Amino acid sequence: MWNWIQRFSSPKHFYSMSAPLIKWFSAGALLIGLYGLYLGLFVAPTDYQQGESYRIIYIHVPAAWMSLFVYMVMAVSSGIGIIWQIRLADMVAAASAPIGASFAFLALVTGSLWGKPMWGAYWVWDARLTSELILLFLYLGYMALQSAIEDQRSADKASGLLAIVGVVNIPIIHYSVEWWNTLHQGATVTKFDKPSMHIDMLIPLLLMAVAFKLFYAAVVLVRTRNEALYRDRNRRWVRELVERL
Amino acid sequence: MLEARSLECVRDDRLLFNDLSFSVAESEVLQIEGPNGSGKTSLLRIICGLRQAEAGQVLWQGESILSNREDYYASMVYIGHLPCIKGDLTVLENVRSLLDTRSLTLASAETEAALTKVGLASYEDVPGKALSSGQRRRILLAFIELSRAKLWILDEPLTALDVQGVALMESMIMEHKQAGGSVIFTTHHGMQLECEMSSVQLGRKARS
Amino acid sequence: MLTAYYHLLLRDLRLALRSRHELANPLIFFVLVVTLFPLAVTPTPEALQTMAPGVIWVSALLAVLLSLDRLFKLDYEDGSLDQLMLSPNPLMILVLAKVTAHWLLTGLPLVIIAPLLGMFMSLPADAVSVLIYSLLLGTPVLSLVGAIGVSLTVAVNRGGVLLSLIILPLYIPILIFGANAVDVASDGLPVTGQLLFLGAVLALALSLAPLATSVALRITASR
Fold it and tell me: What is the model's pTM?
């Protein structure tokens, strides 16, 4: 069993296996995403309070969900890399970080754009936006640590440990920010926090969530392949690959 | 006692050594030789458990050192390139502090004897920063002497030592070997040891 | 095991006291930064009282952050860190000894000087006592969590800013609850919830941070 795992997770094996997967994932992401957007932008009913501007949730919410999901993936991969020394796991973690950071950034930008029609300002210290901002900082810290350490293995393990420490902290940070926000509520009542959503609004949202996941899967495979090629650039399988080109 | 199996080490994308195996028994002195950059220090750090090898294992009394750190560390002592001496502590405080991490509290008679042996008898209360680098290395010699370790792992032990210091180090190693202990060391300067020594050569393709 | 803790703690304290001139720096920094705010914003008592909890807490955070470097840097540079890692005693205990020394030398002085800053910032007496309690519970956590960050960055050149980038997000919950406790105390409201939260975070940090720090140290050593 262990031998099978070792063989299965060798970068060389991963490289050849992942090529067809990328096509499937990207196709799925594109089709489901387009359909979800169509439903969300054109078919879903107009919101009673917010009019048309609410439709940005079809990007904003999946992006926020993904930023958290990718961080979990990063932490779990790093854990696998540290405990069982599987290099592919380290590569997946390193490859995922910029993707997750981009999702967090996207969530912040779309949240900000939504804020203008909603609250009249591009930025308010809403609980969710603040948590998202802190998550972005956690991603940036991870990426900064990775690039600051020259030795690749140490860099992976160090930033991996940071990701695991971050995962433990995320619930604490989230809870603290929520609590902080209830004290300083002010005029901005965030009604969209837990809306009872009409089913016609919910379906496009779930479709977009699936599309974003498939998108992440495709992109992380592409980036991990790059990591594998770069890190193993002196090894035989990469040299043979290059020669065959 | 100590066994290395199929060790592999990569540094800065360069393969330093591959499939390296050797063992050190009681009363054995092992010299690690090789040109600069061939991985001598990395090998010693792997044996100490401070650095992980890309492949292979290090075993102490048959068990992997990574799962048996407590026993292994209680039986070995490592001296690297850096002096480990705190400038603001006196010679005696430095020795005691090094022994404290090994949970060894020794009678002052014993520490005094060791300091006398290494030639620092009258320097007990002198702060480390007032000593020359050779004298600081002698503090480490006193530490090794008092450490009750069976295995000594020494990286360039002759660094900064003068002629008497070198002779002292050599005689300490001989005594340790005769008492049943083992030593692994690397050195640039030739050590004149009148005893049998095994050797591991780094910096070439094939290992043995 | 406990003797090793005790001896290492004493060693670090002894070393720090022998370079006494360095000890006061974080403290002076703390007072200096707090002083900047009345100068930069306004010295009116009402405004100061509103700002006080946040300003004092953020300054404390920054003062601890600046002083974290000393935790492992010197040991790393002279090779003592290797010796600590080769000790038959659990590395966690040795880490805890060093963190305790760090807190006694940095966090505790901040707690002691806090009443002075409370006076500077026009805090009422009730709030000042809560300030002391919150700092007493919070500063050990800052040292404990900071140790994780330092152990990851000790071998990075000029890693000070990197350290801040990594650690500050993790400090945010302590900042929120600590500052808030002082804030509501000014209004005479109960603060048990906030202090209990800080206590819980301290318990969590005491149990997990030394473990994370020792893992990080072994990772750093394997360069």
Answer: 0.90
